[in-house]
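Researcher: I'm comparing several assemblies side by side, and this is the next one on my list. It has 455 residues spread over two chains. Same procedure as the others: predict the full complex and return the structure.
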Amino acid sequence: MEINKVKEKMTDLLSDVFDGATIMVGGFGEAGSPIELLHGLIDHGAKNLTIIANNAGNGNIGLGALIGQKQVKKVICSFPRSPKGITFAEQYNKGEIELEVVPQGTLAERIRAAGSGIPGFYTATAVGTPLAEGKEEKIFNGKKYILEEALHADFALIKAEVSDRYGNLFYNKTARNFNPIMSMAAKNTLVQAKKIVQPNFTNPEHVITPGIFVQKVIEIKEPIIETIAIEEGLTYP
Amino acid sequence: MININSNNILKGWDRNTIAEKIANDLPHGSYVNLGIGMPELVSQYIKDDREIIYHSENGLLGMGPSPNENEIDYDLINAGKKPVTILPGGSFCHHADSFSMIRGGHIDYCVLGAMEISIKGDLANWSTGKGIPAVGGAMDLVAGAKNVFVMTQHLTKEGKPKLVNECSLPLTGASVVSRVYTDYAVLDITDNGFKVIKIADDIPFEYLQSVTEGKVYQ
């Protein structure tokens, strides 16, 4: 029997997601953002989710739409402001959604640490700022650092350019961003790829995320382009 | 002490001139991160005698200018989420590697905007203390880049000094700024105060001191 992580149906891909799950969402702005998986999560209906992402959604599609459906109780991100980030702003201003702001590099490193078995690390980022409050300090070679802890997740929603049946992935340009490290940090990594090649990658040098970090993959041939979708007024559901 | 109001605010360098002064101070072969907004202007003033490599936090080293309308690729964007291009010799990496370039001290210069800069080199540029807090990569850049340059107007829109004894806004980093480029002067952060490196032709030294909190010296 052959290993095959490819699923035909979105419901099979998302079948294990549960209420109260912590979910990493790849992407930086629209590049690498798994919009179709997020729409699948809206159809799935899981609630009280904690989302770890760089942003908190734009417009009423993808993460913005998931928040709009009130499925998210908390967002951990570096930059929750977007030109059309209306759904998060509305709920934040009413006190209906929690926010943990993390410096972007610390966010990336906390995710990388989780995927690498590192429970915490010291960094100079945010020392002397409000974001260091309550964090353990330590001096190394006369310089102050703060302790940051690894960020784990139950699931990661990832967008890749190409996958094979093993879940080996590569990405397109700056759509790579958080996707490889989130793939490593989550217990279950669920991927949408624009193309699935059979039976496997012909050149192992091209693999950016090795399949060991990936549990399920679905092919989404023509994913929504956020900028164009928002211009056209697309919303979901 | 000059009493500053909208009638006696002097006009110094325009933003293009400030950008040119920064561009002239970036050495050949430098790896540079330009903040979103006014600092982006700097790339337009790099002279032909040098090559500078631009880093964008979202995993792009060797960033090029904006694309033509028909070349826009929404998978190729900068840290401000605007479409850009990649130059020959450029590369992509994931976010942790991209921030290792910053946090590991590999970026030679970053140029950022500011709300306040203290005499000790503290920088406040991410939060007014109101609205939804959003920090992005600013705290990583000031903590990790070898040289932190600030590009800013000398005064706020209300005519108040941005160069102050103590920042009143939430800090981005403490004792992190190396040099400040304003419309009035180029100033280094030193143990003795703001040291004037260059001053705009139309700006008297006494005026510069009067619109700056803390000691300014030549």
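Model: For your comparison table: The mean pLDDT of chain B is 95.
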